[in-house]
Amino acid sequence: MNPYENAPPAGRVPEPGPDHAPPRKGDPIELASSVYEHGWDLEPVAPVPVGAAVAAVAPGPVAPEEFLPRPIGPGPAAVHGPRPDPVSPVGGPVEPAVAPPAGPAEADTTAASGPVVRPASFREPGPLSHVGRKPPAYPAEPTDLPSVRAGDPYGALLPDTVVDGGRFGPVTVRAASVRGDSHRYAAECRQDAALVVRVGELLLVAVADGVGSQPHSHHGSNGILRLLAKQVAPKAETLLGVLRTGSAADFASLTSRLVAAAAGELAQEAERAGHPPKSWSTTLRALLVPADPEVRVRGFVSVGDGGLLRLREGGWDNLDAEEDGDDPLISTRTDCLPEAYELARTRLITDTRPGDLLVLCTDGLALPLLKEPELREFLGGRWAREVPGLAEFLWQAQVRVRSYDDDRSVVCLWEAPA
């Protein structure tokens, strides 16, 4: 039953949503009766006998203050350890010039434990930030979970969000793939995917965007990343040699064959699952990075839309626009795997500098980055300053922009500074 197409049950008010939101899909499983009909009542608590001894509870904290959880905000650099008390030159703590005001919840504990000192960057917990004059129409957090549909449990098993990262040779990596607001609201699974994997002395990072009009595109996006890694692994040494020589023709020839082989396996998997290969349609973007810091060449291969941007000295460059000016994000033509494997585009990035940041992403982030200056300023101001931790990166990558509610997958590569 779809609660947005029928009258809600008595006492239930349907959750409000944007006017243009897709309808929620009804869960095929409905409970036939309430659990309360089975007599699951709590046993009454026996009264305390009159005159019975009651253990006295001493006032004060039940645990040392250093073991108590401290409130932290979701914003960047909000997690810090407790600050040490200042000490005067003659010994003893220094009284603060201005004591921080205590909130209502802290008023009863200040006498026993002293004022709570929070980091300067502390943010009150709340919804994710957004840029732009108007907030997004959708809720800031997931409101429903995908269900098993049409006998395909794979979509229901995909997590809402994944985050990954680490260090490899000359680069520090952060990656995230997040279900978009519209898919969250419609109880649909995440159709994007991201990959960070080491293959020999190469780092392979990639993102894929399942085509929303196809019913099984989440199989395609996750499958093509797995199969590409499978194809790259036995050719890692050869690819490393090509990147050392900087031969664009050899790189294009080899990676095009690897993409074609991965696409062929993807089509076979779709057929074995009883699905037309087209229903697994997905885009692909990948970068190959050598572990050797002396090799500054990075290899890029893509099929379909998405983005590859570089942040250098505070300025953004779009590295994915073709030489003839046909930007794959603006073009109405969308190439997808497994069918369009022969349309793979490749290039070598040979002018990498220390301190550069490469941003590989699906169009869920590429479009607002290219079109919204406020988002470029927001992310550029943070990513150019320091490499964030995994939790901070996830928070930053999710900063929302009205009208951009698709899945987001992004991998960032920070080149080591000189």
From TrEMBL:
Compositional bias per record (Low complexity), positions renumbered to this chain: 88-97
InterPro entries on file: PPM-type-like_dom_sf (IPR036457), PPM-type_phosphatase-like_dom (IPR001932)
Residue ranges occupied by any PPM-type phosphatase domain in the UniProt entry: 179-384
Region (Disordered): 1-29, 73-148
Compositional bias segments (type: Basic and acidic residues): 17-28
Name of the protein in its database record: Protein phosphatase 2C domain-containing protein
Organism in which the protein naturally occurs: Kitasatospora misakiensis
